[in-house]
User: Which sequence fits this backbone?
C-alpha cells in the first residue's frame, strides 16, 4: 500500500474526517476552557462541525461516484443517508444546549461523543465492506452506550445505559458472527464482490444461510425489529431526551442504510428467502409496536414503541428488494428524522428533568396556554399517523407504493391497517392538548436551540408534505 | 381591453378581502364605499368589454380568455378561463350595474347595523361568485360560481341569524332552508356535469356545444337537460323547489333586491340560455321547462294576491316573473328570457328597495293591512314604487310590458294553452302589483301610531332608486318589437330565434297584453280603492279558494310531511340506533380488542434483561431455522 493509493479518492470520507477533527477540537477546547461560561461554546463548535460535514457532503454530491479503498462509497444513497444523519445530529445538538447543563456538567465529552457517534453513523451509511461496516457500527454503538447513561445520578439513565450495552454487545456478537460466516461462504468481505460470487456459484449453503440469518439479527437489533426490539423502550425512556432523539433518527438511518446496501449489493440473489423473512418481521414489528404503544402513559415510551412500529413500515419497503423500495425507505427516514425529533423536542419542553420523561397528562390543556407548541406537536402527531398533506403521509405512501409495485400488496394492506391503529395513540395526545383541562399548570422549558429545532422540524414536516416531489427528485437524482 | 377582463372578478374579490382584513379599522362609510366602488369599477370593466365586443364583427364576438390551468388529472382538464361573449357581458352588466346601485343603497339601509362590515364583505363576495358563474368558460367554473352564490345567499338570508319572529321563525332557519333546498338542485347540476364529462370528455362550453349535436344521443341530451332543469328549479325558485324563496325574505332588504330578485335567482335562466344547444337536442325537457315556468308563474301570482306582507308579495311576484323567464327560455325564446331578466332586474330591484324604504320608515313593519295613506308621508318612495309596479304590471310602453309581451308572443307560437295561462297570470300580476300600491299608499291610515312616525328615507336610499326607476321605464328600448336590438346582439351566444311571428299576430298580441294589464290595474282600483260592489262580489265568489291560496296550496306542509319528517325520522334512527349500536359498536369492539392485546404485550416488556435476551435468542433460532431449512 503506497501513499498514492491511500490518498486516492480521499474526499469520499471527507465528512467523517471533518467530524473526527471537530470531535478532537471539542475535547481540546473543553480542556483549555477556563470557566463554566466558556463551555457554552462547545455546542456551537459541535454545530460548526456538523455544518462543515454537511458542506463537505454537499461538495461531494457534485462529484462522480467514487469509492475509497473499496471500503466506503459516495453514491447518492450514501450521501442522502449521511445528510439525514447529520440533520438529526444537528437537531440533537440544538436540543442538548439547554438540557445538558441540568443533568451533567461534563459537556466536552458529551459533544465529542455526539460527533463520534455521528461519524460512526455516516461511516456505516457509506460502508461497502463488512469489516468497515462492523467498525462503524461499534463506533457509534459505544458512543451511544455512554450517551444513554449520561445522566449519571439518575438510576433510570444508568439502567438504560447498562441494558443497552449488554444487549447491544449480545447483538453485535451475532452480527460479527454472521459477517464471518458470510465471508466464509463468499471468500471476501466486500459487499459487491460477495454479490457477484453468490450470483454465479451460490457459495457454501451451510455457511451462507446461517450467515444471512445472523446478519439480519444484528441489523434487526439496531433498527428495533420485533423480537429484537425489547431494549428500545427502556433505553429511549431512560436516556436523556436529546440522546433519544438523536438515536431514534440517526441510528435508524445508519442501520437501515447499511441494511439496504447489504441486501441490495451482497444478497440480491437470495431475495426470495430473505424477502419472506423480512415480510414476517415487518408484520410482527408493526403490529407489536403499535399495539403496545396503545397502552403507554409516558410520552417517551409511546414514541419508543412508535419508533419500533416505524421500523416495521420502513422494513416493508425493503421486502421487494427493488431500487424503488430503497428510495422509499430513505425518503421515510428523512421524514421520520424531522417528525420524530420534533415530537421528542416537545417532550423535552414538557418533561420534569429528574424524571427524564413526561407523562401524557402533562400535555393536557397545552393548547390553551401554549397554542404554538400545541400546534407544532399536532403537526408531528398528525404526520406520524400519516395524515396528508404532511411529510409522514408521503413517507408511508412511497413505502406502500413500493410494496404494491413489488408484488407485496398484502403487506401494504397490513401496513395501512397498522397505521390506522397508530392514529389512536398519536391523536390521543392531541385530544389531551386540545380537549382536556390542565391538572397542574405546566411551564414549558425553553431555550433558543429548542425553539429553533421545533420551528425547523415543524416547517420541514409541512414543507416536505406540500412538496414531496422536490425531495423525491432530490433523492432519485442521485443514482442510489 | 378584453385582456383585462379578469379585473371584472378581481375588483369585488379585492373589496371583500380588504374589508375582511382592514374593515375593522375603517369607518362605516369607508367600508360601504370601498364595497360599492369595487362593484362600480367592475361595471366600468363590463362597459369596456361591451365596447370591445361591439368593435368586433358579429361572428367574432365569442372570445375565450384563458387565465390558468385549474385542475389537470389525466385527461381531465378544467381551465380557469373567462368566456367573453354577448350573453356573459350582458349578465355582467346587469350584475355589476344593479349590484353597484344596491351596494350604495345598502350603505344607508344597513348603517345602524352592528355587523355592517360583515354585510359588505358578504355582498362583495356574492358579486364575485356571481361573476364567476356568468363569466366562466366551462361547466365546472359555472358550478363553482353556482355554489358560491348559494353560500352567499345562505349567509345573507341568515344575516340576522339571532333574530326570531312569527313570520320566519329563527332567521337562521330560513338560511338553512334555502341552502338545503338548493342542494337538491345543485345535485342535479353536478350529475349533469358528470354525464357531460363521461360522454363528451370535456366540460368546456364551446367544446361541449360543438361536439354535442354529433355525439350526444337525444336520450342523453334530454337526461342532461332534465338534470339542468332540476338545478334551475332550485336556484331560480320554480316548482317544485321554489319554497325557499319566500323565506329568503328574512334577509336584509338590499339582499332581497340584489340576490333574491335581480341576480342570483336568474342564474337558472342564464344557465338554460347558455346551454341552449343541449336543450335543443332534448326538446321534451325544454317543453317541460316551459310548462313548469308557466305553472309556477300562475301559482305564485295567485299566492301573491293574498299575501299581506309587502316583501312576501314581492317574493311571490319574483317567483312568478322567474316563471315567465323559464317559460320563455323553455320555448326557445332565449333572447326574450334574458330581456325579461334584465327589465325584471330593474323594476324588481326598484320595488324591493322601495319596500325597504317603507320598512325603514315604519320601523320594520311590513304588514300592508296596517299601512294606508303613505303617499303623503313618503312621496318619493311612493312615486318610485308606483313606477316599479307599473313596469311589473306590464303597463303599456314600460319596460316590463315589452319583455313580458315578447315572451307571451313566443309562447303563443309554442302552445296556445300555455299562452292562455301566461295571459291570465299577467292579469293577476297587474291586480296584485296595484293591490300593493293602493293598500299601503292610498286611502286612510289604518294604524294611526304607525302613520304618525312614518318618515321618508335619506337621499342615499332614494337616489340610486331613481336610476333604477328610469331604467324600469325606458328599459324596453333594449329590445323594442320589430327592432330587436338585444336579440340580434345575443345571437352569437344563443343562436337565431326559431319563431318568426307574422306582423298581424305580433300587433294583435301586443294590444291584448296592453288591455289585460289595464284591466288588471282597474280591477285592483275597483276592489281596493273604490270598493265597488261587483269587485267585492267577485272576490266573494272566489272565497272558497281563499284558504287554499292563503296557505300557499299547502306545499310547505306537504313537503314537511312527505320529505322532511320521514328524513328526520330516518336520521333519528341512524343517530340513535344504527350509529351507536352498529357503527360505534363495531368500532369499539375493534378498539377494545386492540387495547386488550396492547395491554398483554405491554406486560411482556417487563424490564428484565434476561427476558429481552431470551426474546432475541428465540428470534435467532427461528430465523436460522427458517433460512437454513426453509
Assistant:
Amino acid at each position: 500500500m503506497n501513499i498514492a493509493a491511500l490518498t486516492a479518492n480521499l474526499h469520499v470520507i471527507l465528512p467523517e474526517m471533518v467530524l473526527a477533527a471537530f470531535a478532537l477540537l471539542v475535547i481540546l477546547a473543553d480542556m483549555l476552557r477556563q470557566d463554566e461560561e466558556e463551555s457554552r461554546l462547545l455546542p456551537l463548535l459541535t454545530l460548526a462541525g456538523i455544518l462543515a460535514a454537511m458542506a463537505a457532503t454537499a461538495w461531494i454530491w457534485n462529484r462522480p461516484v467514487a469509492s475509497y479503498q473499496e471500503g466506503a462509497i459516495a453514491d447518492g444513497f450514501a450521501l442522502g443517508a449521511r445528510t439525514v444523519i447529520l440533520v438529526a445530529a444537528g437537531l440533537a445538538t440544538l436540543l442538548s444546549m439547554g438540557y445538558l447543563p441540568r443533568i451533567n456538567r461534563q459537556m466536552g465529552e458529551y459533544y465529542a461523543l455526539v460527533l463520534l457517534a455521528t461519524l460512526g453513523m455516516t461511516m456505516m451509511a457509506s460502508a461497502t465492506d463488512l469489516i468497515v461496516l462492523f467498525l462503524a457500527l461499534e463506533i457509534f454503538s459505544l458512543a451511544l452506550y455512554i450517551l444513554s447513561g449520561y445522566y449519571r445520578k439518575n438510576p433510570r439513565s444508568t439502567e438504560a445505559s447498562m441494558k443497552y450495552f449488554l444487549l447491544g454487545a449480545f447483538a453485535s456478537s451475532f452480527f460479527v458472527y454472521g459477517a464471518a460466516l458470510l465471508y466464509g461462504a463468499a471468500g471476501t468481505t466486500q459487499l459487491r464482490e460477495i454479490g457477484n460470487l453468490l450470483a454465479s456459484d451460490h457459495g457454501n449453503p451451510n455457511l451462507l444461510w446461517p450467515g444471512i440469518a445472523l446478519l439480519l439479527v444484528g441489523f434487526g437489533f439496531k433498527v428495533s425489529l420485533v423480537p429484537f426490539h425489547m431494549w428500545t423502550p427502556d433505553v429511549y425512556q431512560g436516556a436523556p431526551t436529546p440522546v433519544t432523539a438523536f438515536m431514534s433518527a440517526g441510528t435508524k438511518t445508519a442501520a437501515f442504510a447499511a441494511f439496504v446496501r447489504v441486501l441490495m449489493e451482497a444478497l440480491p440473489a437470495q431475495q426470495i428467502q430473505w424477502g419472506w423473512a423480512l415480510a414476517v418481521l415487518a408484520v410482527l414489528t408493526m403490529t407489536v409496536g403499535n399495539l403496545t404503544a396503545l397502552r403507554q402513559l409516558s410520552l417517551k415510551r409511546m414514541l419508543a414503541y412508535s419508533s419500533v412500529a416505524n421500523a416495521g413500515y420502513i422494513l416493508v419497503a425493503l421486502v421487494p428488494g427493488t431500487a424503488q423500495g430503497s428510495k422509499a425507505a430513505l425518503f421515510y427516514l428523512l421524514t421520520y428524522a424531522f417528525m420524530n425529533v420534533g415530537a421528542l423536542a416537545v417532550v423535552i419542553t414538557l418533561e420534569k428533568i429528574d424524571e427524564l420523561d413526561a407523562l401524557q397528562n402533562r400535555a393536557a390543556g397545552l393548547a390553551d396556554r401554549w397554542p404554538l407548541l400545541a400546534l407544532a406537536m399536532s403537526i408531528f402527531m398528525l404526520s406520524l399517523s400519516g395524515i396528508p398533506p404532511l411529510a409522514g403521509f408521503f413517507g408511508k405512501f412511497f413505502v406502500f407504493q413500493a410494496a404494491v409495485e413489488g408484488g407485496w400488496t398484502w403487506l401494504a394492506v397490513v401496513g395501512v391497517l397498522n397505521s390506522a391503529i397508530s392514529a389512536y395513540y398519536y391523536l390521543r395526545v392531541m385530544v389531551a392538548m386540545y380537549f382536556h383541562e390542565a391538572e397542574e399548570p405546566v411551564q414549558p422549558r425553553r431555550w433558543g436551540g429548542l425553539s429553533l429545532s421545533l420551528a425547523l422540524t415543524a416547517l420541514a414536516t409541512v414543507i416536505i408534505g406540500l412538496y414531496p416531489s422536490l425531495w423525491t427528485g432530490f433523492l432519485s437524482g442521485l443514482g442510489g | 381591453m378584453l385582456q383585462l377582463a379578469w379585473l371584472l372578478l378581481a375588483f369585488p374579490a379585492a373589496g371583500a378581502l380588504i374589508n375582511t382584513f382592514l374593515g375593522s379599522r375603517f369607518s362605516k362609510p369607508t367600508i360601504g364605499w370601498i364595497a360599492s366602488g369595487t362593484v362600480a369599477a367592475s361595471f366600468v370593466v363590463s362597459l369596456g368589454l361591451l365596447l370591445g365586443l361591439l368593435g368586433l364583427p358579429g361572428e367574432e364576438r365569442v372570445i375565450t380568455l384563458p387565465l390558468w390551468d385549474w385542475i389537470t388529472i389525466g385527461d381531465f382538464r378544467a381551465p380557469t378561463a373567462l368566456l367573453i361573449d354577448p350573453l356573459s357581458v350582458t349578465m355582467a352588466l346587469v350584475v355589476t350595474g344593479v349590484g353597484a346601485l344596491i351596494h350604495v343603497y345598502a350603505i344607508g339601509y344597513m348603517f345602524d347595523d352592528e355587523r355592517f362590515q360583515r354585510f359588505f364583505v358578504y355582498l362583495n363576495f356574492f358579486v364575485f361568485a356571481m361573476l364567476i358563474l356568468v363569466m366562466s368558460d366551462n361547466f365546472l367554473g359555472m358550478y363553482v360560481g353556482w355554489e358560491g352564490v348559494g353560500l352567499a345567499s345562505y349567509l345573507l338570508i341568515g344575516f340576522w341569524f339571532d333574530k326570531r319572529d312569527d313570520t320566519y321563525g329563527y332567521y337562521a332557519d330560513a338560511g338553512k332552508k334555502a341552502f338545503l333546498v338548493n342542494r337538491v338542485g345543485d345535485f342535479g347540476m353536478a350529475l349533469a356535469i358528470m354525464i357531460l364529462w363521461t360522454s363528451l370528455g370535456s366540460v368546456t362550453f364551446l367544446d361541449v356545444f360543438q361536439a354535442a349535436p354529433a355525439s350526444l344521443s337525444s336520450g342523453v341530451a334530454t337526461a342532461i337537460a332534465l338534470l339542468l332543469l332540476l338545478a334551475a328549479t332550485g336556484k331560480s325558485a320554480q316548482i317544485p323547489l321554489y319554497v325557499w324563496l319566500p323565506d329568503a325574505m328574512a334577509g336584509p332588504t338590499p339582499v332581497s333586491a340584489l340576490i333574491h330578485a335581480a341576480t342570483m335567482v336568474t342564474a337558472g335562466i342564464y344557465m338554460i340560455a347558455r346551454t341552449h344547444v343541449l336543450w335543443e337536442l332534448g326538446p321534451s325537457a325544454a317543453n317541460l321547462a316551459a310548462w313548469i315556468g308557466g305553472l309556477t308563474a300562475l301559482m305564485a301570482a295567485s299566492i301573491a294576491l293574498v299575501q299581506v306582507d309587502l316583501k312576501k308579495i314581492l317574493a311571490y311576484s319574483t317567483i312568478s316573473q322567474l316563471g315567465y323567464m323559464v317559460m320563455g327560455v323553455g320555448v326557445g325564446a332565449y333572447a326574450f328570457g334574458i330581456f325579461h331578466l334584465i327589465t325584471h332586474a330593474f323594476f324588481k330591484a326598484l320595488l324591493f328597495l322601495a319596500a325597504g324604504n317603507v320598512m325603514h320608515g315604519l320601523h320594520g313593519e311590513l304588514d300592508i293591512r296596517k299601512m294606508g295613506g303613505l303617499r303623503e308621508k313618503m312621496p318619493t318612495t311612493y312615486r318610485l314604487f308606483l313606477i316599479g309596479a307599473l313596469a311589473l304590471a306590464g303597463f303599456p310602453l314600460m319596460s316590463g310590458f315589452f319583455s313580458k309581451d315578447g315572451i307571451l308572443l313566443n309562447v303563443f307560437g309554442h302552445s296556445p294553452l300555455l299562452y292562455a295561462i301566461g295571459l291570465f297570470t299577467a292579469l293577476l300580476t297587474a291586480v296584485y302589483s296595484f293591490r300593493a300600491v293602493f293598500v299601503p299608499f292610498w286611502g286612510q291610515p289604518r294604524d294611526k301610531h304607525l302613520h304618525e312616525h312614518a318618515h321618508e328615507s335619506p337621499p342615499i336610499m332614494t337616489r340610486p332608486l331613481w336610476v333604477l326607476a328610469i331604467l324600469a321605464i325606458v328599459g324596453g328600448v333594449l329590445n323594442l318589437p320589430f327592432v330587436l336590438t338585444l336579440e340580434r346582439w345575443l345571437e352569437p351566444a344563443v343562436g337565431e330565434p326559431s319563431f318568426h311571428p307574422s306582423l298581424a299576430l305580433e300587433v294583435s298580441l301586443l294590444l291584448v297584453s296592453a288591455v289585460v294589464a289595464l284591466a288588471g290595474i282597474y280591477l285592483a282600483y275597483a276592489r281596493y280603492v273604490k270598493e265597488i260592489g261587483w269587485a267585492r262580489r267577485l272576490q266573494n265568489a272566489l272565497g272558497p279558494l281563499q284558504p287554499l291560496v292563503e296557505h300557499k296550496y299547502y306545499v310547505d306542509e306537504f313537503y314537511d310531511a312527505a320529505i322532511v319528517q320521514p328524513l328526520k325520522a330516518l336520521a333519528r334512527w341512524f343517530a340513535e340506533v344504527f350509529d351507536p349500536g352498529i357503527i360505534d359498536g363495531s368500532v369499539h369492539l375493534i378498539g377494545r380488542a386492540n387495547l386488550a392485546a396492547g395491554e398483554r404485550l405491554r406486560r411482556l416488556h417487563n424490564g428484565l434483561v434476561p427476558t429481552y435476551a431470551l426474546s432475541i435468542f428465540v428470534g435467532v433460532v427461528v430465523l436460522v431455522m427458517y433460512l437454513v431449512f426453509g
